[in-house]
Amino acid sequence: MFHTAMQAAIEGARTLAQMDELSRQLWQGHASGALVDQEAQILAERLHGRRSAIREGIRPVGLPAGRASLFPPRRSLRSPDRAASLERRRLLACSGPLPPQLAARFTEGQRAVLRIVGDEVSAKGVCGLCIDAIAARAGVCRRLAQGALRLAAGDGLLTIEERRHQGRKNSPNLVRIISREWQAWIRRGGAQKRSGLALAAEGSSQPTALGCKAFRPTDKGITLGTNLTPEPSKKLPERQSLAHR
After folding, report:
1. What is the extent of the structural domain holding 136?
2. pLDDT tens sequence across 103-137
């Protein structure tokens, strides 16, 4: 009786979950004595055959034949102007992206990547750019940008928060700077930039901050506020000079 019922259930099963449940019931019946060894073996072989047939009939929904993913394959991105990318990379690396004692750990390309991250953090508090955008702005390849962020994270300079989504495209990682030295360096650079813009807005007669040195457009080498008329040289009268000879 139990053998006939199990055989009918195996033939009528349509999903792998049903097959797993029937397999559990089969071996429970064998353990309780409802099935002898030969009957259990026959049912187990039939169950295995039905499971293989169900597994072969499963097809991914919405996927074209011959493709294993919903997302298009990643294209290899190359700079249209390698000379311009190299020049941009050198400029960013030499612009002081982080304190000298920290910058010494990284190569030129890595410093360019960290400059892009530092600018985003300074403007928005967190860098949410995708890795391709960071690499393009820094003038480096995708792999170098990933390596620079991993190296900085390993040194404890920043954190990388992954935002993965099941069944759909992942969101760009969130990069946050946690190094106090680097944060102070960014704040100092922002303060200098704001003071320079404020002075420039007051008028051209006021000194304009360029970098770390104040520059006055109207200053031609004469210090402002000093007397422009040269003081006459103090000479002894002619008689006194003759008397002292």
Report:
1. 82-182
2. 998 999 999 999 999 999 999 999 999 999 999 99
